[in-house]
Fold each of these.
Amino acid sequence: TLRMTALLTAEFRKVLSLRYWWILGIAPLLVGLFCGALTLPVMRQLEDVVGEDFAEAAAAAVGISLALALVFLFAALFGVVNTGSEFQHRTVITTFLTTRGRDRVLATKLAVVAIFGLAYCLVAEAISALTILLFGGGFSGADFGTVGAVLGTGLLCAVLWALIGAGLGLLTGSMT
């Protein structure tokens, strides 16, 4: 476990020393911010036609869904860039030479990718939900259990998409 901790620390330091982790995190954050804020006024206009308590539920569904879709895309892109760049720039060779067992190195890379995918999703979901709460006054028309289930499922899907992206980067050995 000491070796895995050292590998995790080294992998986190490597990722945090490069710019792509926060550059890929900006787009889902902005979409989460604006989707919640912009869909609510549009849905309020439709509320007269459709009925009461429609605007908040629809804004929550549309705002959070759009933010989650982009989070999944950017989590997968992060996974591809994190693993594929290592092979493309041949920096993984040094890691393999200095670490006993390639399986530990790959497990560490996958763990870090999963953590960053989860973090992207947590931030985007929090921002989306906060903007809907701030600009709309709440989720009065939405069932909290349903919203919670969507947010929980989104977290799992973001982790899975990050791992799929990492797997593609490992499989092809390239970012493209």
Note: Residues 48 and 100 are 66 Å apart (CA to CA).
Amino acid sequence: GQLRQTVLHLVAKLVGEVGVAPDVLAGRIKAAVDMLADAAESALLRLHPDDVPLVEGKLPATVFAVADPHVSRGGFVIESASTIVEDGPALWLEELAAAIERVPIPPPC
């Protein structure tokens, strides 16, 4: 249990220190837009206020960015009439924690 907590703590610290790379964020947003049920439909992109300038000029014409202080840095939520796509470091850490919980710890030698 302690090993799992240590791994999660270290990864969370690493993710927090990496920062937000504009091109990487724009690429993740483009991949998420590709998941929308209808690629031609308009979508609202909610981002942390500090991340909005990072994607200016890099979004598809049908995607409109708005600042949302409830979204963590590096994360986003895309909302269209038929689909919601969410991504970001907090979700990655949740998935990692779930994966770690599924892996049994081997008995001591």
Note: Helices lie at 2-18, 22-33, 52-55, 89-102.
